[in-house]
Amino acid sequence: MDRCGEAGPEGKENCSSEPCKSTLKTPLKQSATSHSVLAEIQSNSGPLTTPPKLKEIPLGDPWTPTTNLKILISAASPEIRNREQKKGLQDSRSEILEAKHCLQEHLSGDEYEKSQPSRKEKSLGLLCHKFLARYPNYPIIGESNYICLDEVAEELTVERRRIYDIVNVLESLHMVSRLAKNRYAWHGRHNLNKTLQTLKKVGEENKYMQLIQLIKKREYENEFELDGEKNEETATKTIGINEHSEMCFIELPGMEFRAASVNSRKDKSLRVMSQKFVMLFLVSTPQIVSLEVAAKILIGEDHVEDLDKSKFKTKIRRLYDIANVLSSLELIKKVHVTEERGRKPAFKWTGPEVLSDIQGTKPISTVSTFVPSNSLEPKPSKEQCSKNLFPTRGKQIFTRHPSLMKLVKSIESDRRIHSAPTSPVKTSTTGCDQNSSTFPSKMAHLAAICKQQLEGQSSELKMKTKLTSNLECNLAAPESILKSETYTTSPSPSLVHSLGVLPLSHNSMSPVMLPHPHAGVSYTIYLHPSQAQTATTYSPSFVLQSVPCTNVTGVKTALEVNSKVPFSKMTTEEGDGNVVKDDTNFLNAKEKKVTKIESTPRSLLKRSQALQENSLIKKCKHGQKSLGVPMGKSVKNERPSSRALHVDTEVISFQERGQIKFEKLDQNMECCCDKERREGFPEDGSKTNNTQERPVPFAVHAHEALFPSGYLIPIARCTQHSNETTFSNKEKAGICSLQPATYSSPITGVIPVTASELTAVNIPAFHVTPMNIMVSPSSIAAAPVVNSSCLNSGHTHSVQNPSSSILNFTLQHLGLIPAGVQVSGNPVLQSLPISPKAEHVNTVSENVNLQQRKVLKNESQIPDYELNGKSVAVIPLQQQPSVPAKPKESQVVTENFFRTPGGPNTIASLSSFPENSDRVFQKTLTIPQRKLEVSDD
DNA sequence: ATCTCCCGCCATGTT
DNA sequence: AACATGGCGGGAGAT
Questions:
Q1: Smallest CA–C1' separation from A149: which nucleotide?
Q2: Is the N or the C terminus of chain A less surrounded, counting Cβ atoms within 10 Å?
Q3: Does the C-beta of A167 come within 7 A of strand C?
Q4: Nearest by Cα to A896 from A577, A597, A557, A600
Q5: Distance (Å, whole) CA A490 – CA A629
Q6: Nearest CA to A569 among A414, A415, A707?
Q7: pLDDT at A317 over 90
Q8: Mean pLDDT of chain A
């Protein structure tokens, strides 16, 4: 009978007829005040600590029936029960049950209800906290850490069924492994990094990123019927998302399931779902995944329309279950993404930054010592990845499901993406392992320290510092950049890992942030340090694109590797934009990215200067830290909206079409490695200032061109707010009017001028478009830069020191440095209209300082929604015509930055750094941009 | 109304 | 057969 009461739930089900069951089920212990419990949980993060118990019998009301009940219940608390158990007293349970019954009887319905723990108190998340509290994060290996499900269920006073939910998810992360019936081994987080790496790898191989994009695209298509639909459709079909649904559980060596039963089960289980869910976070760039998208991917529906409603709902339920556990593990955090369609639940990855490169990392197995030799091998092929990474004894347990392979292939063929080329650069070599086992505590410590420091500093300072450090770091170690941003954004968890894992590998680009005179937007310029060398390795030329650094995104880099085709697609990075913005289409995504810029830093100027002066290297660590903060805040992109407002629908559609065509063209292109970084959203709405997105130029790799430097394409932004804007409305209007013409060309985005010049060089695509220029005066600056980089010729620095040349250009354009000299040489620039903007730039540049920046920001550049405290909102650069984002204020528009290649519709090019090559990235589908807002709840 | 997601029925696998 | 697992979806608390 005891069983029935407590653990019995399961069993009870069988006996469902009994009335008492329902009653008994409820956890007694919870009776303690929910608040206290919650508080406990929250406060007690200590893994080792004993499970939170209700110590309290807090009830203040003495002697009411309720009180008695509570007391009884409290008596049943796990601790007590344990003791009793030890003593062999099992009666307690029955007593408790009885007490409960009594309670029911005595209390009125109302009272009884009150006495019952609230739904929240019974949440899986809470339960998971309790569960986790029972075991150390890093148990001593060798020490027996066994978990007896029955016992746990009893102690936590929950049905065993619930424990399964938790254990299954933990199992998916290899934090526990099943030893036998009713028995699990606790591994804690020793294997976590390894597992995450593996999952990331598998996720990349499976092209989850593309899937996500596809789904978003579909959503978009469903909403709006686009002309390009056919194309997309085909692509979609080709990809065959549906095939994705099946997947095998991924195991780590030494962590194989011991029970045949588990292996045999068709795992569509929570375990597999959990792994896939985690993969989605690991491969997407803003590491934010909406439930909807996740559910679709997990379901593997090929057509959204076909989605079975109930199936979808079920999936969502399961995802909530998984999410609760992952949240308890602090790997994800719930947020919301808001778009035109409304607010949608989503989760943001808050776990450690994961390097896809698993080489060198060895799984730590507390259970078994078996370590496959494979794990050490150099990158396994896609096919092998799973297997090799997770060799199993005897049978291969996990490995990618064949369907996945198909999917991958189809995607590849469809897009003609070549990941290989990109990968070379990848830091793989340097790949630092995350020696999770070794570092965890240290890392954590560092992270904590960093966090504190960050907190202590004013946001501005933070930003500044970060930027500086980043720059430095970047210069020194390019690769670090990406990570740094990423880390920064989400300081806590990520930092920990990141620090430990600094990759030595190189990024090809180093970002330099420059303040944008106009809006106070800063630009980030990625310099390719070694430029030529690195670039050459695999691809050659860099093109600077403006990249928006949204908070979310952080610094983004777009790297396109290109290819034979002159214009590469601008693929964007994925997701960021997408995610953040939400589901917009990819094309938009690119733009978004581009468009979005982090508004943050004005400090950029200083930074840039600093760079020039000293390109030193501070520690990467600093860099990491720094970036995150600045970018981190919520950012919003206004640009899209502005544009949308002004642009005709027709125009847009046209563009899109163009893009589509573009994409096709891309086939030849190689895929880019993207390396965007994820941004971190500030967890709290922090103060950070960041704010708007600013266009950040980044360097893109052009394939054939060997130019070391990148092109800078700053986008000037006219602020949304009229007051801010430099231009009069009329001007703006004029500008806008011009756009259409520009857009007419499918290829928009490519600058003719540039092209011509480039030709010599073979630069595939140029991003600056006349139209862009027109749109934003500030953009002018960009053009020169581009040329300079490409041409190099007249410029002082160029070849040898590409980065410096870029900086110069940039600075000049911005007005930071005396313009003219270098710029003058550039025909393109000359041709460009300069006016209003120039003034602006100069003026601004002179004065740039933190305060000013702040002012600027405050005044107008940031859209209201941006200001929402916690929430981070990103507005897509371009809005769809059909669904214009409505700026809260009348925005007038204009984009501030140059649009790069993709032209308005195109997605910002993706950027990927070589180092990150792992992530394959390619562009992708075009999706209309939408406004996306991400907010923490 | 929608979002969350607890609860437990019941199918399936194991012992 | 009894027990262990865990898929699944109804339905209710939270918002």
A1: C4
A2: C
A3: yes
A4: A597
A5: 8
A6: A415
A7: yes
A8: 44
Q: Which nucleotide is nearest to A268 (CA to C1')?
A: C7
Q: Per-residue pLDDT for A278 more than 50?
A: yes
Residue predicted with more confidence, A314 or A651: A314
**Nearest Cα to Cα of residue A357 among A372, A375, A370, A371:** A375
The answer to whether A700 and A543 have CB atoms below 8 angstroms apart is yes
Question: Looking at the C1' of nucleotide C2, which residue has the nearest alpha carbon?
Answer: A11
Q: How far apart are CA A268 and CA A247, in angstroms?
A: 7
Work out if A395's Cβ lies within 7 angstroms of strand C.
Answer: no
pTM confidence score: 0.43
φ/ψ bin of A207: left (φ > 0), alpha (ψ from -120 to 50), beta (otherwise): left
Assess contact for A701 and A540: CB atoms under 8 A.
Answer: yes
Note the CA–C1' distance, A874 to B11, in angstroms: 46
A44 CB-near residues (< 8 Å, 6+ apart): A52, A133
Structure tokens at A648: 């005709």
Contacts of residue A479, Cβ cutoff 8 Å, sequence gap at least 6? A427, A430, A503, A504, A505, A506, A507, A913, A915
* A:112-131 Cβ neighbours of strand B under 7 Å: 119, 122-125
Q: Token pair of A875, please?
A: 């507005």
Helical segments of A338-458, H only: 382-389, 402-415, 419-422, 440-456
Q: CA angle A6-A10-A14, nearest 5°?
A: 115
What pLDDT, on a 0 to 100 scale, did the predictor assign at position A825? 29
* β-strand pairing of A932-936 with A332-339: antiparallel
Q: Would you call A4 helix, strand, or coil by DSSP?
A: helix
How many angstroms separate the CA of A781 from the C1' of C1? 81
Token output for A651: 């125009």
Q: Residue A577 above 70 pLDDT?
A: no
Q: What is the DSSP letter of A765?
A: -
User: Rounded distance, CA A209 to CA A280, Å?
Assistant: 7
Q: Which two tokens stand for residue A88?
A: 């062999």
User: Nearest 5 degrees, angle CA A628-CA A631-CA A637?
Assistant: 155
From the centroid of its chain, how far is CA A814?
Answer: 30
A160 beta carbon to strand C: under 7 Å: yes
Q: Protein footprint on strand B: which nucleotides are under 7 Å from a CB?
A: 3-10, 12-15
Nearest nucleotide relative to A308: CA against C1': C9
Are A873 and A692 a contacting pair, CB within 8 Å? no
d(CA A920, CA A36) in angstroms, rounded, equals 47
Q: pLDDT confidence of A866, banded at 50, 70, 90?
A: very low
Distance from residue A21's CA to nucleotide B8's C1', rounded to whole Å: 10
- Lookup: nucleotide whose C1' is closest to A17 CA: B9
Q: For strand B, is any atom closer than 7 Å to the CB of A344?
A: yes
Q: How far is the CA of A190 from the C1' of B14 (A)?
A: 30
* A161 contact to strand B (CB, 7 A limit): yes
**pLDDT (tens digit, 9 = 90+) per residue, A344-355?**
889 989 888 887
Q: Residue A129 has which token pair? A: 């906290």
Q: Which nucleotides on chain C have any atom < 7 A from a protein Cβ?
A: 3-11, 13-15
Separation of CA A23 and C1' C1 in angstroms?
Answer: 28
- Calculate the angstrom distance between C1' of B15 and CA of A182: 12
Contacts of A33 (CB under 8 A, 6+ apart): A56, A58, A59
Nearest residue to nucleotide C5 when comparing alpha carbons to its C1'? A164
C-alpha A433/C-alpha A362 separation (Å) is 8
pLDDT at position A254 is 55
Length in residues, chain A: 937
